[in-house]
User: What shape does this take?
Amino acid sequence: MSTPSSTAAAPALPAPVRDRLVASIAQGTLELPVLPEVASQVVKLSGDPNSDTRQLAALIQRDQAMAGHLMRMANSTLYAPKVPLVSLDQVVSRMGMKKIREIALIISCQSKVFAVPGFEALIKAQFRHSLAAAAFAQEIARNRRWNVEEAFLCGLLHDVGRPVLLQKLIDLHQELKLPLDLGAVEAAIGALHTRVGSDLVKSWTLPARMAETVLYHHDAMKSTSAAQTAMMTQLADDLAHLLLTDGGRAVAEAAVRAHPLLVPLNLYPDELDALLAQRDTIKAMVESVS
Ligand SMILES: [Fe+2]
Ligand SMILES: [Fe+2]
Assistant: This one.
Protein backbone atom coordinates (compact mmCIF):
# COMPACT_ATOMS: atom_id res chain seq x y z
CA MET A 1 0.00 0.00 0.00
CA SER A 2 1.38 3.38 -0.89
CA THR A 3 1.20 6.34 1.43
CA PRO A 4 1.55 10.01 0.49
CA SER A 5 5.07 10.07 1.95
CA SER A 6 6.22 6.91 0.16
CA THR A 7 4.99 8.15 -3.21
CA ALA A 8 6.72 11.54 -2.84
CA ALA A 9 10.10 11.31 -4.58
CA ALA A 10 13.04 11.81 -2.21
CA PRO A 11 15.13 14.83 -3.19
CA ALA A 12 18.07 13.74 -5.31
CA LEU A 13 21.76 14.61 -5.08
CA PRO A 14 23.23 16.60 -7.99
CA ALA A 15 24.29 14.02 -10.61
CA PRO A 16 28.07 14.75 -10.46
CA VAL A 17 28.06 14.34 -6.65
CA ARG A 18 25.99 11.16 -6.80
CA ASP A 19 28.13 9.61 -9.55
CA ARG A 20 31.41 10.27 -7.77
CA LEU A 21 30.09 9.00 -4.47
CA VAL A 22 28.53 5.83 -5.88
CA ALA A 23 31.64 5.07 -7.94
CA SER A 24 33.99 5.50 -4.98
CA ILE A 25 31.87 3.19 -2.80
CA ALA A 26 31.64 0.56 -5.55
CA GLN A 27 35.38 0.70 -6.27
CA GLY A 28 36.34 0.68 -2.60
CA THR A 29 38.16 4.00 -2.94
CA LEU A 30 35.98 6.00 -0.53
CA GLU A 31 38.33 7.37 2.10
CA LEU A 32 37.34 5.95 5.48
CA PRO A 33 38.42 7.32 8.87
CA VAL A 34 41.48 5.51 10.14
CA LEU A 35 41.38 3.96 13.57
CA PRO A 36 43.89 5.74 15.84
CA GLU A 37 47.12 3.73 16.17
CA VAL A 38 46.65 2.62 19.76
CA ALA A 39 43.01 1.60 19.21
CA SER A 40 44.05 -0.33 16.13
CA GLN A 41 46.72 -2.17 18.15
CA VAL A 42 44.16 -2.89 20.87
CA VAL A 43 41.84 -4.47 18.27
CA LYS A 44 44.76 -6.58 17.00
CA LEU A 45 45.79 -7.69 20.49
CA SER A 46 42.22 -8.59 21.42
CA GLY A 47 42.11 -11.00 18.47
CA ASP A 48 45.40 -12.63 19.43
CA PRO A 49 44.98 -15.59 21.82
CA ASN A 50 48.64 -15.30 22.91
CA SER A 51 48.45 -11.68 24.03
CA ASP A 52 48.16 -10.71 27.67
CA THR A 53 46.95 -7.70 29.63
CA ARG A 54 50.52 -6.55 30.46
CA GLN A 55 51.17 -5.99 26.76
CA LEU A 56 47.89 -4.12 26.61
CA ALA A 57 48.79 -1.80 29.49
CA ALA A 58 52.20 -1.08 27.97
CA LEU A 59 50.58 -0.27 24.66
CA ILE A 60 48.02 2.15 26.09
CA GLN A 61 50.71 3.81 28.21
CA ARG A 62 52.27 5.05 24.95
CA ASP A 63 49.27 7.28 24.21
CA GLN A 64 48.63 9.54 27.18
CA ALA A 65 45.46 11.05 25.72
CA MET A 66 43.98 7.59 25.17
CA ALA A 67 45.12 6.47 28.63
CA GLY A 68 43.41 9.48 30.25
CA HIS A 69 40.21 8.92 28.29
CA LEU A 70 40.24 5.28 29.21
CA MET A 71 40.61 6.01 32.92
CA ARG A 72 37.67 8.43 32.79
CA MET A 73 35.47 6.07 30.79
CA ALA A 74 36.30 3.06 32.99
CA ASN A 75 35.11 5.04 36.03
CA SER A 76 31.96 6.38 34.33
CA THR A 77 28.44 5.08 34.96
CA LEU A 78 28.76 2.98 31.82
CA TYR A 79 31.06 0.57 33.66
CA ALA A 80 30.26 1.68 37.23
CA PRO A 81 33.15 -0.01 39.08
CA LYS A 82 32.40 -0.86 42.73
CA VAL A 83 35.52 0.99 43.84
CA PRO A 84 37.17 3.77 41.81
CA LEU A 85 39.92 2.48 39.51
CA VAL A 86 42.95 4.66 40.08
CA SER A 87 45.69 3.26 37.85
CA LEU A 88 45.89 2.10 34.27
CA ASP A 89 47.19 -1.33 35.38
CA GLN A 90 44.16 -1.69 37.60
CA VAL A 91 41.79 -0.69 34.78
CA VAL A 92 43.38 -3.14 32.37
CA SER A 93 43.45 -6.08 34.78
CA ARG A 94 39.91 -5.52 36.09
CA MET A 95 38.27 -4.91 32.74
CA GLY A 96 40.17 -7.29 30.48
CA MET A 97 40.94 -7.20 26.80
CA LYS A 98 37.41 -7.16 25.35
CA LYS A 99 36.17 -4.27 27.50
CA ILE A 100 39.30 -2.25 26.78
CA ARG A 101 38.69 -2.80 23.06
CA GLU A 102 35.14 -1.57 23.58
CA ILE A 103 36.29 1.60 25.35
CA ALA A 104 39.02 2.27 22.78
CA LEU A 105 36.38 2.05 20.03
CA ILE A 106 33.94 4.33 21.86
CA ILE A 107 36.70 6.92 22.24
CA SER A 108 37.81 6.55 18.61
CA CYS A 109 34.26 6.82 17.29
CA GLN A 110 33.56 9.90 19.37
CA SER A 111 36.76 11.72 18.45
CA LYS A 112 37.42 10.57 14.87
CA VAL A 113 34.14 9.55 13.26
CA PHE A 114 31.26 11.32 14.97
CA ALA A 115 32.96 14.66 14.35
CA VAL A 116 31.69 16.72 11.41
CA PRO A 117 32.49 20.45 11.73
CA GLY A 118 29.38 22.59 11.29
CA PHE A 119 27.01 19.72 12.18
CA GLU A 120 27.94 19.25 15.82
CA ALA A 121 24.40 18.99 17.24
CA LEU A 122 23.21 16.48 14.62
CA ILE A 123 26.31 14.33 14.97
CA LYS A 124 26.21 14.39 18.75
CA ALA A 125 22.59 13.18 18.60
CA GLN A 126 23.69 10.37 16.28
CA PHE A 127 26.50 9.39 18.62
CA ARG A 128 24.08 9.33 21.57
CA HIS A 129 21.72 7.18 19.49
CA SER A 130 24.59 4.77 18.79
CA LEU A 131 25.48 4.50 22.47
CA ALA A 132 21.84 3.80 23.36
CA ALA A 133 21.62 1.14 20.64
CA ALA A 134 24.86 -0.39 21.98
CA ALA A 135 23.44 -0.58 25.49
CA PHE A 136 20.15 -2.10 24.32
CA ALA A 137 21.96 -4.62 22.10
CA GLN A 138 24.05 -5.59 25.12
CA GLU A 139 20.90 -6.13 27.21
CA ILE A 140 19.29 -8.26 24.47
CA ALA A 141 22.48 -10.32 24.24
CA ARG A 142 22.59 -10.75 28.02
CA ASN A 143 19.02 -12.02 27.93
CA ARG A 144 19.78 -14.40 25.04
CA ARG A 145 23.12 -15.46 26.60
CA TRP A 146 25.01 -14.24 23.54
CA ASN A 147 28.33 -12.42 23.48
CA VAL A 148 27.65 -9.08 25.20
CA GLU A 149 30.85 -7.33 24.07
CA GLU A 150 30.17 -8.15 20.45
CA ALA A 151 26.57 -6.96 20.89
CA PHE A 152 27.70 -3.64 22.34
CA LEU A 153 30.01 -3.02 19.37
CA CYS A 154 27.31 -3.95 16.83
CA GLY A 155 25.08 -1.29 18.39
CA LEU A 156 27.86 1.27 18.71
CA LEU A 157 28.92 0.86 15.08
CA HIS A 158 25.60 0.19 13.32
CA ASP A 159 25.21 3.76 12.00
CA VAL A 160 28.90 4.62 11.71
CA GLY A 161 28.40 5.09 7.95
CA ARG A 162 26.19 8.14 8.59
CA PRO A 163 28.79 10.66 9.79
CA VAL A 164 31.32 9.29 7.27
CA LEU A 165 28.91 9.91 4.40
CA LEU A 166 27.88 13.32 5.70
CA GLN A 167 31.51 14.48 5.73
CA LYS A 168 32.14 12.99 2.29
CA LEU A 169 29.06 14.65 0.81
CA ILE A 170 29.98 18.03 2.30
CA ASP A 171 33.47 17.69 0.77
CA LEU A 172 32.11 16.65 -2.64
CA HIS A 173 29.64 19.54 -2.79
CA GLN A 174 32.44 21.95 -1.87
CA GLU A 175 34.81 20.52 -4.45
CA LEU A 176 32.19 20.68 -7.19
CA LYS A 177 30.95 24.10 -5.98
CA LEU A 178 27.38 22.91 -5.62
CA PRO A 179 24.90 23.97 -2.92
CA LEU A 180 24.08 21.42 -0.23
CA ASP A 181 20.45 20.24 -0.13
CA LEU A 182 20.10 18.63 3.30
CA GLY A 183 17.02 16.63 2.28
CA ALA A 184 18.92 15.04 -0.61
CA VAL A 185 21.96 14.43 1.60
CA GLU A 186 19.82 12.73 4.26
CA ALA A 187 18.10 10.52 1.66
CA ALA A 188 21.46 9.44 0.22
CA ILE A 189 22.87 8.73 3.68
CA GLY A 190 19.77 6.68 4.51
CA ALA A 191 20.28 4.56 1.40
CA LEU A 192 24.06 4.11 1.59
CA HIS A 193 25.09 4.15 5.26
CA THR A 194 24.76 0.41 5.82
CA ARG A 195 27.28 -0.39 3.06
CA VAL A 196 29.72 2.37 4.04
CA GLY A 197 29.46 1.47 7.74
CA SER A 198 30.11 -2.16 6.95
CA ASP A 199 33.18 -1.23 4.85
CA LEU A 200 34.48 0.86 7.75
CA VAL A 201 34.06 -2.01 10.24
CA LYS A 202 36.01 -4.28 7.86
CA SER A 203 38.75 -1.71 7.42
CA TRP A 204 39.14 -1.56 11.20
CA THR A 205 39.80 -5.34 11.11
CA LEU A 206 36.84 -6.12 13.37
CA PRO A 207 35.22 -9.56 13.02
CA ALA A 208 33.40 -10.21 9.71
CA ARG A 209 30.17 -10.92 11.60
CA MET A 210 30.10 -7.31 12.84
CA ALA A 211 30.53 -5.98 9.31
CA GLU A 212 27.68 -8.19 8.09
CA THR A 213 25.51 -7.04 11.03
CA VAL A 214 26.08 -3.39 10.15
CA LEU A 215 25.25 -4.15 6.50
CA TYR A 216 21.88 -5.68 7.40
CA HIS A 217 20.82 -3.68 10.45
CA HIS A 218 17.73 -2.34 8.64
CA ASP A 219 16.86 -5.67 7.02
CA ALA A 220 18.11 -8.34 9.38
CA MET A 221 16.12 -11.23 7.93
CA LYS A 222 18.14 -10.92 4.72
CA SER A 223 21.43 -11.65 6.44
CA THR A 224 22.75 -15.14 5.80
CA SER A 225 25.78 -15.23 8.09
CA ALA A 226 24.85 -12.85 10.93
CA ALA A 227 21.06 -13.09 11.21
CA GLN A 228 21.06 -13.27 15.02
CA THR A 229 23.24 -10.24 15.64
CA ALA A 230 21.57 -8.32 12.81
CA MET A 231 18.10 -8.94 14.30
CA MET A 232 19.38 -7.97 17.74
CA THR A 233 20.88 -4.76 16.33
CA GLN A 234 17.77 -3.88 14.35
CA LEU A 235 15.62 -4.18 17.49
CA ALA A 236 18.21 -2.27 19.54
CA ASP A 237 18.17 0.48 16.90
CA ASP A 238 14.38 0.85 17.30
CA LEU A 239 14.62 0.77 21.10
CA ALA A 240 17.25 3.53 20.91
CA HIS A 241 14.94 5.63 18.72
CA LEU A 242 12.12 5.10 21.22
CA LEU A 243 14.40 6.25 24.05
CA LEU A 244 16.03 9.29 22.43
CA THR A 245 13.81 11.27 20.12
CA ASP A 246 16.57 13.60 18.90
CA GLY A 247 18.44 10.83 17.07
CA GLY A 248 16.42 10.60 13.85
CA ARG A 249 13.16 8.78 13.04
CA ALA A 250 10.47 8.46 15.72
CA VAL A 251 9.55 4.99 16.99
CA ALA A 252 6.46 4.53 19.18
CA GLU A 253 6.31 2.12 22.13
CA ALA A 254 3.35 0.32 20.50
CA ALA A 255 5.52 -0.37 17.45
CA VAL A 256 8.25 -1.86 19.64
CA ARG A 257 5.70 -4.02 21.49
CA ALA A 258 4.48 -5.37 18.13
CA HIS A 259 7.99 -5.62 16.65
CA PRO A 260 8.25 -8.32 13.96
CA LEU A 261 11.65 -9.44 15.28
CA LEU A 262 10.46 -10.30 18.82
CA VAL A 263 9.33 -13.77 17.71
CA PRO A 264 12.47 -14.72 15.72
CA LEU A 265 14.57 -13.38 18.60
CA ASN A 266 12.49 -15.49 20.99
CA LEU A 267 11.80 -12.52 23.26
CA TYR A 268 8.64 -12.88 25.34
CA PRO A 269 6.55 -9.88 26.48
CA ASP A 270 7.96 -10.02 30.03
CA GLU A 271 11.50 -9.98 28.60
CA LEU A 272 10.65 -6.96 26.48
CA ASP A 273 9.24 -5.31 29.63
CA ALA A 274 12.57 -5.96 31.33
CA LEU A 275 14.38 -4.32 28.38
CA LEU A 276 12.07 -1.32 28.46
CA ALA A 277 12.62 -1.04 32.21
CA GLN A 278 16.30 -0.34 31.44
CA ARG A 279 15.42 2.94 29.73
CA ASP A 280 16.30 5.29 32.59
CA THR A 281 19.60 3.51 33.28
CA ILE A 282 20.57 3.59 29.62
CA LYS A 283 19.63 7.25 29.30
CA ALA A 284 21.76 8.11 32.33
CA MET A 285 24.69 6.18 30.80
CA VAL A 286 24.33 8.05 27.49
CA GLU A 287 24.29 11.38 29.36
CA SER A 288 27.43 10.44 31.26
CA VAL A 289 29.44 9.45 28.18
CA SER A 290 28.33 11.97 25.55
FE1 LIG B 1 20.85 2.79 10.30
FE1 LIG C 1 20.32 3.67 14.03
